[in-house]
Structures are given as C-alpha cells and as structure tokens.
Glycosyltransferase RgtA/B/C/D-like domain-containing protein
Amino acid sequence: MIGALVLILFLFGINQAIFNAYSSKHKWFSKDLMNKLYFYHLFFFGVYYTYASFNNSDSKAYYERPQLNDDWFYYFGTSTTFIDFLSWPFINLFGFSYEMMMVLFAWLGYLGFVYAYMFFRENIPIKIKVFKNFDLLILTLFLPNMHFWTASLGKGAPIFLGLMMFAYALKNPKSRLVTLLIGSAIIYFIRPHVFLFVAVGTVLGYMTGKEKISFGKKLLIYVGMIGGLVLVQDQILGMAGLENSDNLVSDFDNFSEDRSQGLSESGSGVAISDYPLPLKLFTFWFRPLFFDAPGILGLIVSVENLLYLLLFIKILKKDFISFLKNSPISVKMSLVVFFLSSFALTFVMSNLGIIMRQKSMVMYFLFFVIYYYLAQKKYDRIIKLKKKRKAMLRRKFEYEEVVNA
C-alpha cells in the first residue's frame, strides 16, 4: 500500500505539469478546481478498492492475467486483452502491486474528467445554474457514479479518457491531432463498436453543423473517420461474431438476444429484451430508480439517476428541435454518439449492475447537449435584453432631443 501512496503523490506532480501546459493554452483553465477533482476522484478509488476487497471484482482478474505470459505482445488486441496489454509492463517490468495498478487506472479515469472539463468549458463559456443554486459544470464533474466506475483497474477508466480526449480534440483537429489519434486508438482498441458510433457521429456532425468548415478540415475528418472504419470493419463485426455474416440484421438480432439472456442470468436482471424501444432506452439511461435498486449501491445510484432524469426533462421543450437544427458540430456529434451507443447497448444489456457501469462512458455526451442547450437559451435571453436596452436608450435619446429642441 506504501507504493500506492507514493504513486498518488508522484501522479499529483505529473498533474501539475499537465495543468501548467493547458493553463498556458486556456486562460479559463482552473488548476485549483482540477486539484480538488483529483482528490475527490481518489476518494472513489478508496471506495472502489474497499468494495473490491469484500466483493468479486474484475479488477483482480485484470491484475492476474498479465502475469500468465512473458510475451508482452501476446496480449495485443482489442477489448479485454488490450487492458492486459496496457497493464503488462507496469506489472511485469516495474513491479506494480494490485493497489498501484488500481491507482494508475484511477488516474487515467481522472484525466478523462480533466478533458471533459476542457471539452465543456471551451465550447460553453457561459455559467449555468440548475436546481436554483447548483453550477451545472461543477455538478457534472462531481457526479459520484461517474467517478466510481472510472476509479479502478479495468475498461471503464481508459475508455472514458479516450472518449473525452477525442471530444476535446475535435474542436481543433489539426492542432490537436496527437490527442485525437490517441483518443481514437484508445476507443477502438477497448471498444471497437463505440469507435464506430464516434466515427459516425463525427461525420454527421461535420456534415450538418452550423460552422463554416474549410474543405481541408472536412477532408481530414471524413478520410480519417471513414477510412478508419473501412480498415477496422472486420474487428468491429468480430466483436459480435458477425465478420462472416450474410445477413447482418438477422445475425445481430440473434446475437443481442443471446447476449441479453446471458446477462439477465448474472444477478439483478431485468427483462429489458421484452421492452419496447422507448422503455429500453429509459431503463438504460435512468434505471435503477428507487423501486428497483439492487442493494445499497443501487440506492445511491438511484439518487444520481433521478438527477439525470430531471436534467433530461429540461430539453423536452418545443424549441429543442430548432436548437438542434442550428447547433454546432460538437452538439450534433455528442447527440449521435449518445443515441447510437444507447440504442446498441440496450439490445445486449439486461442486468442493472452492468447497465450502471456501461452507461458511464456515454452519459457525458448527453450532459454536454443539455448544458449547451441551456447555455444557448441564456445567451439568447442576454442578447434580447441588450437589444431591448439599446432600443430604450435610443428612444430616450430621441425624446430628449425633441424636448430640448
């Protein structure tokens, strides 16, 4: 455990160097906020470590597997094996203990929140208060369930980091090409199907976004995303055993039914496969709620899910559709990624415990859309108020000229 404590301090120092680099690029970057977020995230590392000490946890298997083979590249591949590939040198060359690996991956999850902060803050400079007194950005960054599932050795932390790196880099892909490539690689090697959703969302965003994008920038994104999908299509289909399929729709339906049935038998199962699509999506986004919470953890998560639901209700307005039509690339990309991921995962998820973990990687895209929508409404009100004041001042000036004439 001493090694884990030393690593925590070492990574804190690394954080400061990262913060200095980004604060020189972004004047609004708050090192104080990010340091507070680091220690907050470490608290959830402690919570998860305690939970894993008394319950079955995949993190233990992720620590043991890399020790079974002396060949590092034996583990090079997609999905679970890629996590083993990332872990292998730290465990076998640097002698990291289980606790140190948990800290290392918790730090990767934390970096995901740093990039999420920059993604939100750079695109939405306006502060928004929700529920009367809560800053929406701060509330979003400190959601407990998001930290819990990104604070341990496993897929959750690095996939969240990859998604947020990608989202942040998309604002200026040419100047952030390295960040974009690293984020894309992380997403693809951990969850190839999520890379598919991200690529489709990005292309659609660039095709329909309100910004005037140069031809060179569009070409870079189109070639990169579409070309990447062509190159990795077999690996993506292979995740569901569909690489040699003659009927993708039928075979995917069979795969999702088998997968859903298997997960429903692993405890806290729900018959989501029998639900209509709207109820499937509701279950994935907002359950468990208090009436079906699996245990103490489920009750805690229910509070957060209720918060998600209350935030989601804020965009159920008539003007949301017109907002989407005129929204920028980042909003449309986020919405497409969120819906495609949700749609696909609802067909294979039927276990509330797994749903709680899986949705953590995509909910931030929904939060971004909600945040941008509320900020746009506030900005429109400010502009309208300024115009009204200008008109009043002009009428007052004209009146005074008449009186004094």
Summary: The chain has a mean pLDDT of 82. DSSP finds 18 helices and two strands in the chain.
